[in-house]
What we know:
Belongs to the TRAFAC class myosin-kinesin ATPase superfamily. Kinesin family. This protein is an alpha+beta fold. The chain has a single domain, classed as Kinesin (3-Layer(aba) Sandwich), CATH 3.40.850.10. It is built from 11 helices and 16 strands. The strands form 3 sheets. Strands 1, 2, 6, 7, 8, 9, 12, 13, 14, 15 and 16 form an 11-stranded mixed β-sheet that branches. The protein has a 3-stranded antiparallel β-sheet with strand order 3-4-5, with helices on one face. Strands 10-11 form a two-stranded antiparallel ribbon. Helix 4 packs across helix 6 and helix 9 packs parallel to helix 10. The termini are far apart. It binds adenosine-5'-diphosphate (ADP).
Amino acid sequence: ASSQESLMSLSSDEGQGGSDLDNINVVVRVRPLASHEVGKKDIQAVQFPGEGQIMVDDQINGHSRVYTFNVVFEPEASQEDVFEFSGLKRLVDMALDGFACTVLAYGQTGAGKTYTLTGPQGEGAGISHEPGVINLAFSYLYEGIKQRKSEDFVIHASYLEIYNEHVLDLLNPSPKHLPVRWSKDKGFYAENLFAVECEDEGDLQGVLEEGKKNRQVRSHNMNEHSSRSHTLLVLTLTAETRDLDDPHTFIRRQGKLSLVDLAGSEKTKKTNSKGETLVEANNINKSLLVLGNCISALADPRKRSGHIPYRDSCLTKLLAESLGGGGMALMIACVSPSRTNAPETISTLRYASRAKRIKTKPIVRMD
Length: 367
Ligand code: ADP
């Protein structure tokens, strides 16, 4: 076996990128035990019995259950491994081809969502050090553009946060909530959201850093703000090519890549859930529940053409275009390996198991 195979396991029947019908990939990333967990002699409750499999020791129900996903990344897997083998490259390629694609990082607070997406946080955590899959995707995106010589691309980035069902612009320090509106052309959108044109990778990194900075300032003095909010970094990729049959006509194609760091999925402890906190907890749990309902309805061919409950939360409204038939989605379910967290790990794996197949169609606009 190669060294890659020892770090992760691929499910043999579903493969890395999936077939045309396999439009949601669900991968699991298990973070290493943290030093404080090792110090407390917390032990690892997860094992990797086979390809694409993860087994969790369920102490509450007194048995171990095996869950199967497209890929399971073991604690030793690097950021590059996750980028390379999660199917994320294919999502970037598809977004360049005019599809709307979504990456969702799901899991309890502390399971590694932010680390996986944007690398380690805090003092000394420079972007060159263990860059996250979003940073790696930025480089890959501009490489892809360079190779597509016959098309002109314009990239815009917007970055927002949903906190307690309110939308805040992370690229605008104003504390004003943005209303979510609907129009025939645009679908659901956050009104007055900044969209910054990014000419190169450096511009995109700048947008990411600016947004993170504004989020930090905002979350100052607000207990657990960052674990209770969802962040959406949305890249709009507009390509123009001359129509080969009629050189005066341009064909415009717009793809989208939504990179979503979801709020912590943990159940809030009842003792902490009073007043304002209770409202927040309900809204967070509700939006994750609605997201799960939308994804499983989209994944089920019998329900796909019926009612998808996007309208039930801000998060799903803003992701409606990306999830509903545009392109491909990748859920990265992040889990802790420790026994203490096993009940939350099981609940994350159950949630992730509900996500299956979504059908695609490209967005093509003619001018
Ligand atoms: P979340 O965003 O899910 O709340 P974080 O990404 O903040 O969790 O991760 C919690 C802590 O664990 C951070 O200190 C982070 O640097 C560390 N961590 C998470 N995943 C990994 C990993 N794969 N390798 C090393 N450290 C990790």
